[in-house]
Design a protein that fits this description.
Largest sheet of chain A: 2 strands, antiparallel
Helix content of chain B: 25-40%
GO molecular function, one term (chain B): phosphate ion binding
Strand content of chain B: 15-25%
Largest sheet of chain B: 10 strands, mixed
Domain PBP (chain B): 43-279
Order of helices and strands of chain B: HEHEHEEEHEHEHEEEHEHHEEE
Low-confidence stretches of chain A: none
Number of strands of chain A: 2
Radius of gyration of chain B: 24 Å
Membrane topology (chain B): Lipid-anchor
Mean pLDDT of chain B: 82
Helix content of chain A: over 70%
Family (chain B): Belongs to the PstS family.
Number of helices of chain A: 12
CATH superfamily of chain A: MetI-like
Number of domains of chain B: 2
Largest interface: A-B, 38 and 38 residues
CATH class of the largest domain in chain B: Alpha Beta
Number of strands of chain B: 14
Structural class of chain A: mainly alpha
CATH topology of the largest domain in chain B: D-Maltodextrin-Binding Protein, domain 2
Oligomer: heterodimer
Strand content of chain A: under 5%
Structural class of chain B: alpha/beta
CATH superfamily of the largest domain in chain B: Periplasmic binding protein-like II
Number of helices of chain B: 9
Radius of gyration of chain A: 24 Å
Shape of chain B: elongated
Function (chain B): Involved in the system for phosphate transport across the cytoplasmic membrane. Part of the ABC transporter complex PstSACB involved in phosphate import.
CATH class of chain A: Mainly Alpha
Distance between the termini of chain A: 8 Å
C-alpha cells in the first residue's frame, strides 16, 4: 500500500498546474465525471429500493410468513388464495449449484493461473489467454444449449436418473465461471513482486516449494476474491441452468437428481403470473433474496481485499 | 465566479434537454390521437386503417398474431402494430393497466388472480388443442382418462402396468403458472395436481425431452406433432385431431384470447375484426396449427362448462 501512495504523491508533484483558460476544461471534466458517478449510484440505489419494495410485498400485503418462505419446502402457488409459498428448495438449489461449481472451477482456474504465471509464462499465457477470453464471450444460452444436447444425454446414458440433474447444472456453471476465476487469479499472481520468488529461490527452495509456501499464502486473499466473484456469477446465472437442471420443486436426493434454482423458477414463471398476485410477489421476494446474497458476496470480497497484503 | 456560471449554464442545458424530450413525446401523442380520431371518422368511408397498436401477452399466440399483424400492415401501410410476447400474465396485467391496447392470453382472465375480468372484453381468436405425448418406444398409443390421471399423479410408475414396455415413466411438466399446464390439468386430468417432474416452459424443449428420454410423457399443442419424434396419445379412443376438438369429442383444448379494456375502438377494433375474418380464420389460423374459433361446434365458459353452440 505504501508504495502506491508514494507513487501517487510523486505523480501529483509532477502534475503541471494549469491556470486561466484551461481551468474551464478542468471543471467540465469534473462535472461530466461527477454526473457519471451520480448516475451509477442512483441506478444502484433505485434498483435496490425497487426490489425491496416489490420483494417485501409478499410478506406485507399477502401475509406470507418470512420464516415459512425461507424454510418451507412446500411451493404450491394457486390463483384462489390458498397458496403455499416455501422457497427453501430453490434457495438450496441455488446455493448447491454455486458451491459445487466453485468447488470444480476453483482448482482448475487457479491451476491454470499458476501455469500461466509460474510454469510457462511465455507460451502458456499466449495460448491460454485467448482461450479464456473466448470462453467469456460465449453467451449463456449457448452453454445451456450445449449442456442440453451433449451433457444431459451423456449423463442419462452413463449415470442413474434422466440426465436433467444438479450435476448437469454444476458442470455447465463451472465452465462458465472458469474464465472469471482464471483471469482474476492470473492477474493476482502476476502482480506478485519478483523479490518474493527470488528470495525463496535464494533460500534453496524448489519451484514447487516456492509456489506452495511463498506465493500461494501471499496471494490467497486475491484468490478468494476470484472464487467469490465466480460464485456470484454462478449464483445469478439463470438461462443455462434452467435448461439442464430439470426445474423440479423438490430437494434433490443426490447430485443426479433434478432440482431448481431461484433464478430458474423466476424466469419460468414471471411471464405467466399477473402483476400483484401472491405468486408474482413471491417471485419478486426471490429476486430480493438473490440481491441480498449478492450483497453478501460483495461484502466478503471487500473484506478479503482489505486483508490483501501484497 | 466562472465555475458558478458554468454550473448554471449546464443546469439550463439539462433542463432544456428534458423539456425538449418532453415536448417531443407530447407531439407524438397528439399525432397518435389525431390518427385514431381520423380512423374512427374514416370507418364509414372504409378507407385504410392507420395509427399505432401495441399488443403483448401469451408467447404461444405471438407467432399467429404477429403474422396477422404483418399481413394487416401490408394492406394498411399507415397502421403500425407492435406484437410482443411476455406471457399471458404479463399480457393481462398490461391490458388492464392500459399500457397495451390488446393483451393476449391462453387462459380466461377470470382464472387469473388480481385481474379485473369484468373490465376486459374477451375476443376468442383461435382454439388450440393439446394432447399427452410419449416417447415412441413406450408401446402405448391410447390411454384412458383414468389411467392418464394415475400416470400424472404418480400412481402408475411403469408403462408395463398399462400394457406397454417395461420403462419407468418420466413426467415432463410445464411451470405451474403456465396456461398450457392449466388447460391440461383442468381438462386432461380433471383438476388433479400432477406429481413433480422435469419442468420446462418452451414447447420445443418439452418435445426434445420427450423424444430423447425413454419412458417420458408430456403434453403439447397439436401444432408440435410433426415427424415421428413423439407419439401423441388418443384419449379414451378419441384421436387428438382438429375435427374431434371442433365437435367437442376431444376435451383438452383452450381458447386463445385477445383481451381489450372495455369495448375495442379504432385500430384495435379493426384489427380484431380482421383476426376474426375468414381470411385469417381459414388462412393463417390453420396454417399456424391452430383451430379456427369460428368453426367450433361447442363453446366453453370460464368455468370450463362445455355447451353446444
Amino acid at each position: 500500500m505504501k508504495t502506491i501512495s508514494a507513487a501517487e504523491n510523486t505523480a501529483k508533484q509532477r502534475l503541471i498546474k494549469t491556470s486561466g483558460k484551461n481551468d474551464r476544461g478542468e471543471l467540465r471534466g469534473k462535472i461530466i465525471i461527477s454526473i457519471a458517478a451520480f448516475i451509477i449510484i442512483l441506478a444502484t440505489i433505485s434498483i435496490t429500493v425497487f426490489l425491496a419494495v416489490k420483494g417485501l410485498q409478499a410478506f406485507v400485503a399477502d401475509g406470507v410468513n418470512p420464516i415459512t418462505f425461507l424454510t418451507s419446502t412446500n411451493w404450491n402457488p394457486t390463483d384462489d388464495g390458498s397458496s403455499q409459498l416455501g422457497a427453501f428448495p430453490f434457495i438450496f438449489g441455488s446455493l448447491a449449484v454455486t458451491l459445487l461449481s466453485a468447488l470444480i472451477a476453483a482448482p482448475i482456474g487457479i491451476g491454470g493461473a499458476i501455469f500461466m504465471t509460474e510454469i510457462a509464462p511465455s507460451w502458456g499465457r499466449k495460448v491460454l489467454q485467448p482461450v479464456i477470453e473466448l470462453l467469456v464471450g460465449i453467451p449463456s444460452v449457448v452453454y445451456g444449449f450445449i449442456g442440453l444436447s451433449v451433457l444431459v444425454p451423456f449423463i442419462r446414458d452413463h449415470f442413474p436418473g434422466i440426465g436433467y440433474s444438479l450435476i448437469a447444472g454444476v458442470i455447465v456453471l463451472s465452465v462458465m465461471i472458469l474464465p472469471t476465476i482464471t483471469s482474476i487469479s492470473t492477474d493476482a499472481m502476476a502482480s506478485l513482486p519478483d523479490h518474493l520468488r527470488d528470495g525463496s529461490y535464494a533460500l534453496g527452495a524448489t519451484r514447487w516449494q516456492t509456489i506452495r509456501k511463498v506465493l500461494m499464502p501471499a496471494v490467497m486473499p486475491s484468490l478468494w476474491t476470484a472464487i467469490i466473484l465466480g460464485m456470484a456469477r454462478a449464483f445469478g446465472e439463470a438461462l443455462a441452468v434452467q435448461m439442464v437442471i430439470g426445474n423440479v420443486r423438490d430437494l434433490p436426493s443426490s447430485i443426479f437428481d433434478t432440482t431448481a434454482t431461484l433464478t430458474s423458477i423466476i424466469t419460468l414463471n414471471m411471464g405467466h403470473t399477473t402483476y400483484g398476485s401472491p405468486e408474482n410477489n413471491a417471485l419478486w421476494s426471490m429476486g430480493l433474496i438473490l440481491l441480498l446474497i449478492s450483497f453478501i458476496f460483495i461484502m466478503i470480497v471487500r473484506f478479503l481485499s482489505a486483508r490483501r497484503r501484497v | 465566479m466562472k465555475k458558478k456560471l458554468w454550473l448554471i449554464a449546464f443546469a439550463f442545458l439539462l433542463i432544456g434537454l428534458l423539456v425538449a424530450c418532453g415536448s417531443d413525446s407530447e407531439a407524438d401523442d397528439d399525432a397518435g390521437d389525431e390518427n385514431n380520431e381520423n380512423n374512427e371518422s374514416n370507418e364509414e368511408t372504409d378507407s385504410e386503417a392507420s395509427g399505432t397498436l401495441t399488443i403483448s401477452g401469451s408467447s404461444a399466440m405471438q407467432p399467429l398474431v404477429a403474422a396477422a399483424a404483418e399481413q394487416f400492415m401490408a394492406d394498411n401501410p399507415e397502421a403500425d402494430i407492435q406484437v410482443n410476447a411476455g406471457g399471458s400474465g404479463t399480457g393481462l396485467s398490461e391490458v388492464s393497466e392500459d399500457s397495451v391496447d390488446i393483451g393476449n392470453s391462453d387462459v380466461f382472465a377470470e382464472e387469473k388472480d388480481g385481474i379485473p375480468a369484468d373490465e376486459l372484453t374477451d375476443h376468442k381468436v383461435a382454439v388450440v388443442g393439446m394432447a399427452p405425448v410419449v416417447h415412441p418406444d413406450t408401446g402405448i398409443t391410447d390411454i384412458s382418462k383414468e389411467d392418464l390421471i394415475k400416470v400424472f399423479t404418480g400412481e402408475i410408475t411403469n408403462w408395463s402396468e398399462l400394457g406397454g414396455n417395461d420403462q419407468e415413466i418420466v413426467l415432463v411438466n410445464r411451470p405451474e403458472s403456465s396456461g398450457t399446464r392449466a388447460t391440461f390439468e383442468k381438462f386432461g386430468i380433471d383438476g388433479n395436481t400432477p406429481a413433480e417432474g422435469v419442468t420446462e416452459d418452451s414447447s420445443n424443449t418439452v418435445k426434445q425431452i420427450v423424444s430423447e428420454t425413454e419412458g417420458a410423457i408430456g403434453y403439447l399443442a397439436f401444432s408440435y406433432f410433426t415427424g415421428d419424434d413423439v407419439t401423441p396419445l388418443s384419449l379414451d379412443g378419441v384421436e387428438a385431431n382438429d375435427e374431434n376438438v371442433q365437435s367437442g369429442d376431444y376435451p383438452i383444448w383452450a381458447y386463445q384470447h385477445s383481451y381489450t379494456k372495455g369495448e375495442p375502438t379504432g385500430l384495435a377494433k379493426e384489427f380484431l375484426e380482421y383476426l376474426m375474418s375468414d381470411e385469417i380464420q381459414e388462412g393463417l389460423v390453420p396454417e399456424q396449427g391452430y383451430i379456427a374459433s369460428t368453426k367450433m361446434e361447442v363453446e366453453r365458459d370460464a368455468e370450463g362448462n362445455q355447451t353446444e353452440k
